[in-house]
Amino acid sequence: MTIQIETPTTPRPPLVPPIRGRARWTAAVLLTAGALLQDVEFVLEPASSGSSADRIAWWADHPTQIALSQAAGILALPFLLGSFWTMARLTRTHARRTTAVAVTMLTCGMVGLADVHGVEMAANWLVQSGHDEAALAVLDVSSPTVAGAAVFVLFIIGAMVGSIVLLVAQVRSPYVPRLAPVLLLTFMVLDFALGSGVAGHAAGLASGAVLAWAVVTGYTRPPRPAKAERAHSGT
């Protein structure tokens, strides 16, 4: 004999997107503008993955292009910070602590990245003034001191750990399409592991575009259907 027991379940209330109204369009801009500017930065400086000497030689030959590239990189930072806080609104309901850690680490990463941009801008100013050797010494400093180590920790550790924790928060959130964390993981592999700036940030832009679409359309991931509990006994 088989006995089937149906356990009544309380219907779940419908999910309400955390960003509604006109704020959706502001959120969509924040989710994409920073990544787009970063991609422009790397496209404008094709020598960014080369040695410091190669970069300095390229800077000297392309003063306008490197100026535009560095400007795009600096302008990306406030939009990136805005994108992290916008992502937090999509993930904090279902992953509050994870979101808090992610946003804190990524904010630290942006502080470190701003410092890196400052160093590279100073080196470029030296190049444009004809002081190539001094610029090389700035980029290839062998003793960065405690302050340099702090910048390294803020940028590298903050950006890498923050991205990983944010990935976990996105997977847990029903307001984030599954494609977004997949593209975020692609960004991390291409940028952090393989050093491919253009392709990596293109993947990051694609992830932001998916999130922007989700916000504008009011996307919610449908919940899994509840399963009836079954008990079987045989005689």
UniProtKB/TrEMBL annotation:
Superkingdom of source: Bacteria
Transmembrane domains' residue ranges: 67-88, 100-126, 146-168, 175-194, 200-220
Note whether Transmembrane helix occurs among the keywords.
Answer: yes
Keyword list, A-Z: Membrane, Transmembrane, Transmembrane helix
Q: What is this protein called?
A: DUF4386 family protein
Lineage of producing organism: Bacteria, Bacillati, Actinomycetota, Actinomycetes, Propionibacteriales
